[in-house]
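Researcher: Next sequence.
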Amino acid sequence: MKDDWRNNLLPPPEGLEDRPDGFISVAILAFIILGPLIYFGPQLGALEAWLVDVYRIVDSWVAPVRDFVLG
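Model: Next structure:
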């Protein structure tokens, strides 16, 4: 009687999938995003400063045109 389950296999109950749950997916996504930010932190700071400088240069070029059109 104990070995009867081998002959009468039923599908697994609902909700018992082999997929990871939502927390694992969020944790992996956070690791993928935050890992490089932590590792390359000093270099990203230099890149950010360079991007801010480029923005200021472009803004100084566009400012007269913007003032003429909007002002």
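Model: DSSP finds two helices and no strands in the chain. The chain has a mean pLDDT of 82.
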